[in-house]
Design a protein that fits this description.
20% of the residues lie in helices and 35% in strands. It contains two helices and eight strands; from the N terminus they run H-E-E-E-E-E-E-E-H-E. Strand 4 and strand 5 (94-103) form a beta hairpin. The longest helix has 17 residues, at 26-42. It is globular, with a radius of gyration of 14 Å. The structure holds zinc ion.
Length: 158
């Protein structure tokens, strides 16, 4: 399919709980390919969750642009979260809106990768923030639900 449309705030798909992926098949692989293409096409996004392209599956793509990406995350489970960080963030599904959000400073998340292997990631800083933001999408939560203070910005990374 290629690049998919990014669903924006107001569409109820963003407010639903996504379902676990039970089997990694060609459809799942294709969806990841499409999600990556869609994410890279935005130019400034660093994460995309499947519900943002209208698919209620627990799948996330993250690429911080630091050479470690893309991460293909299936059925993430938060094992631990610690501390807090407050930074400005935005969302591809809420274009042009930016605000300060409190997130865990550290997140330990276990997920299944595309090979079907369980992987544990111990994340801090931007990766912890991004994981928290994207996992929220899988539960129908938007960053605007958590904004402490809105800010005026022309461009910010998701
Ligand atoms: Zn988002």
């Amino acid at each position: 399919m290629g690049i998919r449309n990014i669903v924006t705030e107001g569409d109820e798909v963003l407010r639903k709980r996504s379902k676990e992926v039970s089997e990694i098949n060609d459809r799942i692989r294709e969806l990841f390919e499409d999600m990556k293409e869609t994410l890279y096409k935005t130019g400034n996004g660093i994460g995309l969750a499947a519900p943002q392209v209208g698919i209620l599956k627990r799948m996330i793509v993250i690429d911080l642009g630091d050479g470690n990406g893309p991460m293909e995350i299936i059925n993430p489970v938060i094992l631990e979260q610690q501390g807090e960080q407050v930074e400005v963030e935005g969302c591809l599904s809420v274009p042009g809106v930016f605000g300060e959000v409190k997130r865990p400073a550290r997140m330990v998340v276990e997920y299944t990768n595309l090979k079907g292997k369980k992987v544990k990631v111990d994340a801090t800083d931007l990766l912890a923030r991004c994981l928290s933001h994207e996992i929220d999408h899988l539960d129908g939560i938007l960053f605007t639900d958590k904004v402490i203070r809105y800010v005026e910005l022309s461009e910010e990374k998701e």
